[in-house]
Write a structure and sequence with these properties.
The chain is mostly helical. Helix content is 59%, strand content 4%. The relative contact order is 0.10.
């Protein structure tokens, strides 16, 4: 049952996702979750790049790609290969990638 705050018509986030994308485990909700993870990767790269005062072009030069490709990754318009992600983090940003997954 969806709980709505009657005073200001607010719905909690999980209920909002249930309404918009279906319950957890449904194909639509799983697709949303995957796309959201890809979006977060782009945001994390952008934040790390800006923290180091790098332009997209400077980051692209460090890893041998184009500014356009970095822009597409940061704006979630491009799928990114794991190898490329590792290069961006290691060679471009001087960081280390740590992965976690659950089954």
């Amino acid at each position: 049952m969806i709980k709505v705050n009657e005073q200001n018509k607010l719905v909690n986030w999980d209920d909002h996702l249930d309404i918009k994308y279906g319950k957890k485990g449904t194909p639509t909700r799983e697709k949303y979750a995957e796309e959201f993870e890809a979006f977060k990767i782009g945001v994390l790269i952008q934040e790390a790049r800006k923290k180091q005062h790098l332009t997209q072009e400077e980051l692209a030069l460090r890893i041998g790609t184009t500014k356009n490709y970095i822009s597409r990754i940061e704006n979630d318009a491009s799928d990114i290969r794991l190898r490329t992600l590792m290069r961006i983090i290691r060679e471009g940003l001087g960081g280390k990638l740590t992965l976690e997954f659950s089954v």
